């Protein structure tokens, strides 16, 4: 039986060259208990061994290791392997690892053992010790999960939420339940952006337009207000996989791209280059990639408009926002890896993310006057159920306050916060604990879609706001001190839609909880 060698081996090895696992015997100090199996990993404290009883984790302080698979404890240092999205591995993670090292007083030595693989060695110069090594493999989100299942990586960097098939494979391989919120952290944000040649005169498209292009129902730019020319669609191959944001938000459930219609790419560099050189091309690019192309805004039939601006990505007001996840297995990781993961979700790490091409989750405050377009849209679409008095109540409540750029949304058809929102709960709790909002009032403002009766929607929206407020208080734990800040939940129902209610993604965008802050009166 072959296994991939894991952490703790003194010799550095490439993620693409797995070693054959070897037999070990773990004997208790008095020799009364013996555990035999194939060595999987050692994290400096615990052995992981694949035995006839399954994978066991054993405290090294209580046993001695015998056999060809035993690591050299005298020369041990932690080796943390990461695999996933190539752009994130190339720019985001090196920046985070370097900042983590500097924060702990370590020096960093970076090298490239082979194409697509970066080695970052952390050293304690004062004590002349190598503390650990991070090996970053530039693959893709899907390949990262495959590496995790094969025990060929410890952490996955993914631009998509784990899919049902990936969850099944991971569970069967003993990696654990990757749907567990504890297995995923959001470390940054990105966004899908429609891009065209700079010579193309189209400025924005709706998601329905994009769906028509990528299903072959729209084939000429003239149908979209452009010139009489064929539409040539381009797409990343990874965006065709199950569970992608492209499939979820643009194609829709059960809809496929006709074979041969779209030109597929394995890298964003290739996609952007192709679109840049073809005046008739359109592709789905990324906020983090850029390129010499023109980004298109999004529009809706009800007057909704959105641009891929950092503030709108942070609040998820831009519908094609993509959280950047770090996924971890259910088994124990080295102390170095656990400390890095704790740092990666901290406010300090978001300062580092802001210096990369990704969008950070740092919390900004938006002035009430910045929300003019939203209020104008609300007034335009007010009807019998949303009265002038309703709009006046919202305005009276929020005028003079500032909206925070972290928002909260829920998993489809449930009251469970989505992954980005769970991350936002911890970020807000840390800011509250640090006293950032001391002496101020926080209004958790709930909003709903327009389906159903207005009074019912007001009640539902307040319940959602109360759910978020409770989650933040729970995250604060004993650090919650009500005398330091006032937190209240309010529900405004369907009074301020962000998007069109006539399609699913628009309704999901409208079901949200915002946080507004004002100085206490």
UniProtKB/TrEMBL annotation:
<dbReference type="InterPro" id="IPR050811">
    <property type="entry name" value="Phosphate_ABC_transporter"/>
</dbReference>
<keyword id="KW-0472">Membrane</keyword>
<feature type="signal peptide">
    <location>
        <begin position="1"/>
        <end position="21"/>
    </location>
</feature>
<dbReference type="Pfam" id="PF00691">
    <property type="entry name" value="OmpA"/>
</dbReference>
<dbReference type="InterPro" id="IPR006665">
    <property type="entry name" value="OmpA-like"/>
</dbReference>
<keyword id="KW-0732">Signal</keyword>
<protein>
    <submittedName>
        <fullName>Phosphate ABC transporter substrate-binding protein (PhoT family)</fullName>
    </submittedName>
</protein>
<feature type="domain" description="OmpA-like">
    <location>
        <begin position="397"/>
        <end position="521"/>
    </location>
</feature>
<dbReference type="InterPro" id="IPR036737">
    <property type="entry name" value="OmpA-like_sf"/>
</dbReference>
<dbReference type="Pfam" id="PF12849">
    <property type="entry name" value="PBP_like_2"/>
</dbReference>
<dbReference type="InterPro" id="IPR024370">
    <property type="entry name" value="PBP_domain"/>
</dbReference>
<dbReference type="GO" id="GO:0016020">
    <property type="term" value="C:membrane"/>
</dbReference>
């Amino acid at each position: 039986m072959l296994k991939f060698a894991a952490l703790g081996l003194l010799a550095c090895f490439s993620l693409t060259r797995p070693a054959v696992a070897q037999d070990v015997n773990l004997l208790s100090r008095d020799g009364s208990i013996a555990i035999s199996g194939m060595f999987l990993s050692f994290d400096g404290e615990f052995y992981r061994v694949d035995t006839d009883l399954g994978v066991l984790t054993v405290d090294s302080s209580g046993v001695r290791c015998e056999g060809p698979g035993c690591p050299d404890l005298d020369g041990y240092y932690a080796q943390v392997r990461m695999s996933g999205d190539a752009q994130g591995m190339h720019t985001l993670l090196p920046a985070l690892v370097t900042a983590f090292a500097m924060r702990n007083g370590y020096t960093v030595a970076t090298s490239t053992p082979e194409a697509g693989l970066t080695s970052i060695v952390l050293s304690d110069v004062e004590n002349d010790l190598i503390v650990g090594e991070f090996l970053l493999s530039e693959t893709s989100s899907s390949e990262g999960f495959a590496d995790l299942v094969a025990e060929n990586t410890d952490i996955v960097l993914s631009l998509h939420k784990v899919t049902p098939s990936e969850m099944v494979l991971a569970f069967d391989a003993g990696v654990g339940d990757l749907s567990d919120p504890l297995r995923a952290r959001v470390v940054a944000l990105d966004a899908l952006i429609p891009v065209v040649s700079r010579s193309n005169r189209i400025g924005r498209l709706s998601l329905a337009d994009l769906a028509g292009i990528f299903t072959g129902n729209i084939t000429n730019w003239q149908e979209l207000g452009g010139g009489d020319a064929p539409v040539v669609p381009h797409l990343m191959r990874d965006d065709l996989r199950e569970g992608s944001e492209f499939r979820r938000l643009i194609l829709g459930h059960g809809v496929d791209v006709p074979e041969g219609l779209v030109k597929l790419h394995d890298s964003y560099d290739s996609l952007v280059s192709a679109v840049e050189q073809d005046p008739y091309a359109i592709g789905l690019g990324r906020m983090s990639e850029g390129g010499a192309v023109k980004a298109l805004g999004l529009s809706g039939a009800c007057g909704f408009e959105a641009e891929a601006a950092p503030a709108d990505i942070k609040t998820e007001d831009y519908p094609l926002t993509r959280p950047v996840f770090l996924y971890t297995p259910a088994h124990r990781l080295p102390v170095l890896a656990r400390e890095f993961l704790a740092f990666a979700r901290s406010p300090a790490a978001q300062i580092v993310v802001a210096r990369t091409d990704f969008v950070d989750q740092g919390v900004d405050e938006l002035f009430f006057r910045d929300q003019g377009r939203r209020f104008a849209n609300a007034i335009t679409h007010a009807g019998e159920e949303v009265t002038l008095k309703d709009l006046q109540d919202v305005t009276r409540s929020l005028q003079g306050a500032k909206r925070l750029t972290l928002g909260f949304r829920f998993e489809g058809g449930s009251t469970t916060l989505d992954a980005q929102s769970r991350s936002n709960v911890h970020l807000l709790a840390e800011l509250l604990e640090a006293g950032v909002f001391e002496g101020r009032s926080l209004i958790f403002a709930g909003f709903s879609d327009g389906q159903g009766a207005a009074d019912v929607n007001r009640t539902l929206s307040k319940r959602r706001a109360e759910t978020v407020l409770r989650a933040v208080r729970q995250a604060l734990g004993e650090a919650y001190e009500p005398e330091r800040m006032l937190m209240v939940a309010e529900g405004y129902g369907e009074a301020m839609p962000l998007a069109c209610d006539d399609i699913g993604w628009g309704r999901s965008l409208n079901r949200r909880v915002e946080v507004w802050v004002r100085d206490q009166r």
